[in-house]
Write a structure and sequence with these properties.
This protein is mainly alpha-helical. It has nine helices and four strands. The chain has a two-stranded antiparallel ribbon with strand order 1-3. Strands 2-4 form a two-stranded parallel ribbon.
């Protein structure tokens, strides 16, 4: 396999996998395509490690699209090293929303999580709408579909709920980008401390 540093910038796989966690039989994912499975096979790994149910689904995120989205959303210059921070953020926040949705479904005596159970605030809803406008240009949504995974829950999200994950992640992404500018109006190149600050703000609210 070629060294990633030799790949063209626009085609390079920027970050494979969102958290690096193993996805066991009890974990759910919206993505249906085992992206990256062929790569595992070419490395000669044992069959057990190649199973989609036991290996984190790989997603190839374009560096160029990632950078373009943050420039369009908040005039920020991010780089491939920020992809892990970003994917960890959206993974954690989607899960937090689902935990609250699960409690709502349980309180209503349902075994299924519906979209109405998700705690989508007015601000997040507006961010989702604004993301959809931006995404017509940057086309980040197909990548977000690969990030839309979550651990097993006591209540099962229905298909309609799973279908909105990419838009929710997109809204969270836009809100994240804009939060950098709120905290540091002159910021152009977010550093580790800026990611930590933004994450702490979201942890207080979601």
């Amino acid at each position: 396999m070629a060294d990633p540093s030799d790949w063209p910038q626009s085609d390079a796989p920027a970050w494979q996998g969102n958290t690096g966690r193993l996805i066991g039989p009890g974990m759910r994912m919206r993505s249906r395509a085992p992206v990256g499975q062929a790569e595992l096979e070419t490395q000669g790994r044992e069959p057990l490690r190649r199973r989609q149910s036991e290996v984190a689904v790989m997603t190839v995120m374009s560096i160029a699209r990632f950078e373009r989205f943050f420039r369009a959303a908040a005039g920020l210059n991010v780089h491939k090293n920020d992809l892990k921070r970003y994917s960890d953020f959206v993974d954690a926040k989607l899960y937090d929303l689902l935990i609250v949705a699960q409690a709502a479904a349980k309180a209503n005596g349902r075994d299924i999580i519906r979209t109405s159970d998700l705690p989508i605030t007015k601000g997040l809803q507006e961010s989702i709408h604004n993301f959809q406008k931006i995404d017509q240009e940057v086309e980040l949504k197909p990548i977000l579909e690969q990030l839309a995974t979550h651990p097993a829950l006591d209540r099962t999200p229905d298909e309609e709920t799973e279908a909105v994950y990419p838009d929710i992640i997109g809204g969270l992404s836009l809100a994240l980008a804009q939060s950098f500018k709120i905290l540091h109006p002159e910021l152009k190149n977010p550093q580790s401390q800026h990611w930590d600050e933004a994450r702490a703000v979201f942890d207080l609210l979601l």
